[in-house]
User: What shape does this take?
Amino acid sequence: MRSSIAAFTRRLRRLGRRTAETSPVDDAPVDDAPRPSRNVPAARRRYAGSRLHLALAVATLLAAATAGSAWYAHHRAEQRDTAVRQALDTAGPAAKAIFSYDYRSFDASVANGRAFVTGPFADEYAETTSALKATAVSEQAVVLAEVSATGVIRAGSAEVELLLYLNQYRRNANTDGEKVDQNRVVLEMRRVGDGWKVARATAI
Assistant: This one.
């Protein structure tokens, strides 16, 4: 029995030595090197996505600004075209009324012309026709103005400057027959309310 116990004890000791030799050492070196984080690829994807969203937002804003500018330019062009058409439609009758008169109905002629003028030019027109009345009556003068051609000098949505070729057919007691004066006149047409009136007239 003793020999059996001794043999078992020896076997335990040998097993303990083998276990100690194969067990890991507590002070074995530890690998402290940082391991790559599994979140890095996800962070990169989020950053790339943010940049893409920003680029798309900027592109959308630029496209909207370009479209807005194009629309505004087109709208302004349409406004100018409309202004030119309206000013041209008014310029012919206005020039005929302003630069025509008949001594037999002088006041009515002046009233007709006054309906087409505005601003300081209205006062100038009133002063000029008032000074002209006595001469027109004494000479029995009749002047009829007709527009032969028109051209646009400059145009805006509220003001249009036009060049008019104007013929004045005149007769009076001191001349034989009818005379024709060919003139060029610059009219500055201005929007007043829903219509257009002459704000300035200059012979050139």
User: Anything to note?
Assistant: DSSP finds four helices and five strands in the chain. The first strand starts at residue 101 and ends at 102. The longest helix spans residues 40-98.
